[in-house]
Amino acid sequence: MAYHTSTEERPIDIVNIPALEPIVKAKMNKGAFGYLAGGAESEITLRENVTSFEHKKILPRVLRNVEKPDMSTELFGIHIDAPIIAAPIAAHGLVHEQAEKDTVQGVGAAGSIFSLSTYGNATVDEVAQASPDTAKFFQLYMSKDDDFNHWILDMAVNDGYKAIILTADSTLGGYRESDIMNNFAFPLPMKNLAAWAAKTAGPDSGEGEGIAAIYAKAKQKLSLADIKAIKDYTHLPVIVKGVQSPLDIEDLLNAGADGIWVSNHGGRQIDGAPGSFDTLAEIAAVVAKRVPVIFDSGVRRGQHIFKALASGADIVAIGRPMLWGLSLGGVQGVTDVYNHFKKELTIDMQLAGTQTIADVKNTVLADAK
Amino acid sequence: MAYHTSTEERPIDIVNIPALEPIVKAKMNKGAFGYLAGGAESEITLRENVTSFEHKKILPRVLRNVEKPDMSTELFGIHIDAPIIAAPIAAHGLVHEQAEKDTVQGVGAAGSIFSLSTYGNATVDEVAQASPDTAKFFQLYMSKDDDFNHWILDMAVNDGYKAIILTADSTLGGYRESDIMNNFAFPLPMKNLAAWAAKTAGPDSGEGEGIAAIYAKAKQKLSLADIKAIKDYTHLPVIVKGVQSPLDIEDLLNAGADGIWVSNHGGRQIDGAPGSFDTLAEIAAVVAKRVPVIFDSGVRRGQHIFKALASGADIVAIGRPMLWGLSLGGVQGVTDVYNHFKKELTIDMQLAGTQTIADVKNTVLADAK
Amino acid sequence: MAYHTSTEERPIDIVNIPALEPIVKAKMNKGAFGYLAGGAESEITLRENVTSFEHKKILPRVLRNVEKPDMSTELFGIHIDAPIIAAPIAAHGLVHEQAEKDTVQGVGAAGSIFSLSTYGNATVDEVAQASPDTAKFFQLYMSKDDDFNHWILDMAVNDGYKAIILTADSTLGGYRESDIMNNFAFPLPMKNLAAWAAKTAGPDSGEGEGIAAIYAKAKQKLSLADIKAIKDYTHLPVIVKGVQSPLDIEDLLNAGADGIWVSNHGGRQIDGAPGSFDTLAEIAAVVAKRVPVIFDSGVRRGQHIFKALASGADIVAIGRPMLWGLSLGGVQGVTDVYNHFKKELTIDMQLAGTQTIADVKNTVLADAK
Amino acid sequence: MAYHTSTEERPIDIVNIPALEPIVKAKMNKGAFGYLAGGAESEITLRENVTSFEHKKILPRVLRNVEKPDMSTELFGIHIDAPIIAAPIAAHGLVHEQAEKDTVQGVGAAGSIFSLSTYGNATVDEVAQASPDTAKFFQLYMSKDDDFNHWILDMAVNDGYKAIILTADSTLGGYRESDIMNNFAFPLPMKNLAAWAAKTAGPDSGEGEGIAAIYAKAKQKLSLADIKAIKDYTHLPVIVKGVQSPLDIEDLLNAGADGIWVSNHGGRQIDGAPGSFDTLAEIAAVVAKRVPVIFDSGVRRGQHIFKALASGADIVAIGRPMLWGLSLGGVQGVTDVYNHFKKELTIDMQLAGTQTIADVKNTVLADAK
């Protein structure tokens, strides 16, 4: 049976980001929505991703000569309009027929960076062709088969992707009960896997399988040496994604990591971990500005971005909200979501007395009482 | 379509202050009520304004020779019957046809000080004429146009207003979702703006616009130098309103501030800030009695006033409750609200073993466990 | 209209103490129940009286040679079967026709001490006659009229009451909204007041008045000197009731207090005070065993008694639960309530590895995490 | 009337462990379910047994060369497939006709250790015969009659049980209100008691009595000397079960305890104690690896096992979940429950970067914020 999904291409009304989720839920396939929304086990970490932002409070400064705050910043020399980039997410085709081909355009129109997952519903090449001018990162789920790894990294390098995101937190699938209860399997092929399968006797496309089965076929035994191997092969910066412990930082930097991506995978991998924001400040303190810190998981408000930056993040990534925009409005919906985050962030910056992103980073937050 | 609102002039029954809000809600225009009641974004700060008072507890003292506690105090040499004054609020006309002309009389009858907003529905002159004997402060939202600033400050000085409140926290409107969802615009002209518009090519009256649009037309780039400029121009004490960070205090005092008004604008500006009470003690400690500390946001009980004074406030201001009284009873309703606060405060002072406001200020609160 | 109330005299079934309250509520006059159950203002302190016990946890000890724990203890040389005595409460006639005459018998049958309020519905003499062998304390609400004070203290001394409880926390009535909303007034005379009124031109009996009016007619300006005056006049131990601040202790002991009664009056006086249990340990530490510490407010479980003793109380008093027993079963109901507390306490003592009340007092509680 | 219970023997579907409880509840006798599910008094400790695991958080490590984690460990030289053993529970016959005879087989099939209660519905011998190859511990509730103690310990020794669990926390029954409200009495004989009663004039079989009555007939006055007496008599390791206070540890080890079993008896004995997990780390720190630490109470997730091991436990025991499996699927249901815990634990170990149980134990947890 063909999988039917959104074909919308239109601007969307946004009062706030969280309000988009029930609208998306009402129109989406139940299993696919469960996959998108769900987290691991009891979903405590999933919920704490949002609530943990309340553990720190903004103390606005006054009479600080602020007007029209400047949200622009850069990452690996790439100028971006605001410190908000796309988190890599598998299978955008679940929410929109155009899948990553739309998302990348929407992200580009917002002046930001797109991150493509190995498990996308468009290939590395297709995404590059859909939006040549958008800066792009490629997220690698390492295969047990180095031929696959080399093939897909070659594509990314050749297509001008600017960095490799090494997924470190997903050597198995988290225990996601929505998927089990819905008996969810991907209704569409993961196009990179399909292209490789067409070319070789490699793993199949993922169509008809759940995420746990797909992760289990990838490489479990990831090691610090993988960082250098990817760097040497691609000559691109390697960002390690899925960092939650400050104890990992020295090892990762010694192993050559060019960026630290603090994330608990949107609460989808190990339940019982802290809300992602609760881990950020301590990790950033150990990184100590040696490499950029990117942060995701639970960002739903401009103030969340503000608090993450003030806690040591250089860049914040958004995941589910971007797909809500994709579902409701295609290219324009994605851009609208970015613009809404920017609207809230610019208000927060103005009201907090911060003219630049550097000012935000220098802000001291208060502990909640 | 004409805007219909209360014309009540009568005493009101008050069991407690929070119980007034649903009564007001039931009789008010939905958009106007949403404007009055709402806060920014998720309204977390709005709610914490009230709940934060529970973070500190009163430990009553016994056998302390207390009888008929004396609530009187003073501010800038003005005697007041109790340490409770009016917070400045825009557009009292939303809740009562007589608008600020009634409120000022009700406040005066309660032996307190009235604060008029630039964005009132009565002019500086009209308020002065409505209650010549009531002590009054004028709250300035600075315009980009210094001619307007001078014109309105001249009026305040000439009409005998006793202090200027410089609004420091509102260089843009907070992101208030009630107003967006209700598509709320002010149904009545802001009379000072209207008078200026009639006289010049200045900004229009605000009628038909939302608060964000109005704030955006005012001056964004407020600076410490504005304090001295207003002082020099008016020779009146200048209170900086909207202070939330102890880091601002030295700068503000060095810049000439004659009073520090701790407030988060009733949770209406930046969500994700602490409950206002949570910021008070640390700010007051830095002020260290060099100038008066005024406190608002979330005050709904006599015990809240007690706790604020014991945390370093010299004076507490009330906002929404005063307008609930105005809505339900006009002049008398306003006075009744003040009297109810005084009734609760006098009981608390007696039971806590405190004879005077100085005793209250010297009380040591306990941290909640 | 005559006030109808319980005339029950029977044993009652008790699964747990809190379960009695809704049964009593269903059969009682609404205003009278509201008076009995209600607290001040928002009733936050009232609720925290019960929940504050969860701030400390029992860590049971094992293999400690415990069997049939001994709950007996003493206060001012009076042997009691368990460290549980009657808190003084006004107007037992609200819940039972026999009023304090039944309660004193039920308390005596439980091997405990009864405390009679000045504002009882039976006189000092009547209570003494109803149960001559029960140990009794008399709780004094001081009058502005020392003749009244001397007259009623003479009765207590002559009737063999063993101690005077000086009410220190009630120089005015707390702001109790149930009473206001129910327009509650006492339907029956306070018999001591009535006897004095019959004899003199003293204050009337309280019938038809609310508690705030009655308190307001008593003496507000209580002082430390009142302790010694009562001691000198009665030659009885004087316990100061209503202590919540450790800062008061040295003054009270220097002024001659023979006992410290930690209480927030069941949450009925000043809302915004801590749960009573939260104040106990610090106060007891300052008392440092110089005089007995009695504790009340919120005791509903045997484990509450255990925790209070382990936090420095020598004796725990129960209030509302005793009246629930009175309402449901008269004399026997009161005894049954005491026996239920003893049943739970003896289980707790056995399971916690504590043979005696001294062992319980030496137990170290853990902070809740 | 005959007691009807499950006779199921089949595999069961498990999405998660907590989801089994309502299914069991729907099919079970109300009183028996209440006995199984209920805790003491207000059941605060019962609830905190599960929620206390949220007080600590897992910070997963990345790129640590982990693949196919090894969950195997050992206890007293007994190899087990995972650090999960059976907690001793009375009266498995309440949930399944085959009672402990099924449970022991299911546990054995899972490669774990079974613990038989004195109050089982199968004798020491019957359990041994039902599954000779399964490693077994025997839980002793000491009788006042040493002849009984010797007789039952002889059986355990002769049947090859590997350790004696001395129940230290149950010298009386906790105050369990479900049992009181349901008027619950055991519908079936406790077979060890019945065998002894048949042989002697000893205590009867427990049939028709509640747990409190049964506990009350056992020995109350347990002492440290009992440890050595059992060791000398059996020459088996003695584990003291029901430890909650770090203050007990030195005494227990000095008295010869070969294992410390941290437990609050599933919240069934003393309410007002901490969640069991809240007591673990401090106790384990005092034990300091001198003897094994076993932990139970509230374990419902693989992550709970992970957190317990990382807090100092060597082995985790499961209670109610095992009986839910027994109820729903007999032998296979028990094994399925173990396998589900192992499935979650292995995912957690892989995702947390831990290859072995030793790695898990060396993991540093974060305090929840």
TrEMBL record, chains A, B, C, D:
Residues that hold glyoxylate according to the record: Y35, Y141, T167, R176, S263, H265, R268
GO molecular function: FMN binding; oxidoreductase activity
Domain FMN hydroxy acid dehydrogenase: 9-369
Entry keyword set: Flavoprotein, FMN, Oxidoreductase
Catalytic reaction list: (S)-lactate + O2 = pyruvate + H2O2
Active site residues according to the UniProt entry: H265
Superkingdom: Bacteria
Cofactor(s) of this protein: FMN
Keyword presence, Glycoprotein: no
Designated name of the protein: L-lactate oxidase
Species whose genome carries this gene: Periweissella cryptocerci
Source lineage: Bacteria, Bacillati, Bacillota, Bacilli, Lactobacillales
